[in-house]
């Protein structure tokens, strides 16, 4: 009996033909980001990952040049694209590495969005144009060593001293922390939680990188220490009162992850197909074994469903906006399934799957962080549960 390898009728990463649901502008943006990632990230990312470093400044300038940073915001040097186009850019970035997408998410959806939505006109004019070009990098300090899922209990304080604010506290796990020019920091005041714009050079501000990470190694993650950090009254974000401020930013970033995780899944799926087609065991490509084909079929199905879900949420966000529970549905499903696809791909690659010669273990390890940050999968399940039952089960 001869074994024939059948060519798929359409692109293997688009068996559902989702491509035809995108308009020309969306395809052009997607292709531009894919090209820049192919040139500036893919050739180097395994090395960055192994070394545990990211040339954040050079990369930010490169990504700013193609207009990805804060691309969905209006004005102040940003392009004001649709949410769907921004999502597609996140997908292409995360297909290379979740760390690179994290750089862009934190810059655009957390730091720039906070300044854009809640900042004064002076804040916007001072920071946004330079952040859009990548000349200035931003970070977002919400999490603390003892307060992650429950930021309401944060211990960082901002107290009035004459006309100034004085901040004290520690922020933990802050992406872009030590390379940032500006930090958006959330703190308790006598009037509840407020946001502050902290230029990185301010006396009393230190950022130290978290070492020994096994995940998101091509990403800067830092601890921020604020010690008697004095800011003028104008440093407060005037439009943010209470936790609604930071949660509004997190919803933006989570939306990018809904698409981004699909990119990591696509990269794994394509790697699995390529490897299975050329790896020979028992005198035939392992792609010819039924068990391998069942894995590939399941991965393709989950990948396609995740892509359609992301696109649906993108279209809904552009047309009507999204409720937090809708974003939670997308993040919960797409990160979970991307991680499953990465793990299954690793089994198809056998021992080769554990090396950095292939992107698979890197994606799988990265997705462990993505599963946890911007709300853990458990917190998203509880958000969905609350929307369904009306009962809050968080506490
Ligand atoms: C690489 C990386 C980058 C990050 N970047 C940033 C950043 O830029 N800015 C920032 O502010 N933060 C950042 N974070 C922090 C991230 O948002 C937090 O890690 C996340 O919110 C979870 O908090 P935690 O790690 O303290 O876990 P915890 O809140 O301690 O949770 C531990 C476990 O308990 C579960 N749990 C907690 N409460 C409940 C509950 N009520 N019911 C059921 N289960 C519960 C959680 O789901 C989880 O499984 C980053 C984290 C990582 C890993």
Question: Overall 3D geometry?
Answer: globular
* Average pLDDT: 96
Percentage of residues in DSSP E strands: 15-25%
* Biggest sheet record: 4 strands, antiparallel
Q: How many beta-strand segments?
A: 11
Number of helices: 11
- Coarse structural class: alpha+beta
Distinct small-molecule ligands in the complex: flavin-adenine dinucleotide
In which order are the strands of the major sheet placed? 4-5-9-8
Low-confidence stretches: none
Essential attributes:
single chain; 395 residues; alpha+beta; 3-stranded mixed beta sheet; binds flavin-adenine dinucleotide
Q: How would you characterize the overall build of this protein?
A:
Helices cover 50% and strands 15% of the residues. With 395 residues, the protein is α+β, with helices and mostly antiparallel strands. The strands form four sheets. It has a four-stranded antiparallel sheet, with helices on one face. It is globular and about 80 Å long. The model has no long low-confidence stretch (mean pLDDT 96). Flavin-adenine dinucleotide binds at residues 106, 140-143, 148-149, 173-175, 216, 221, 369, 372-373, 376, 378-379, 382, 394.
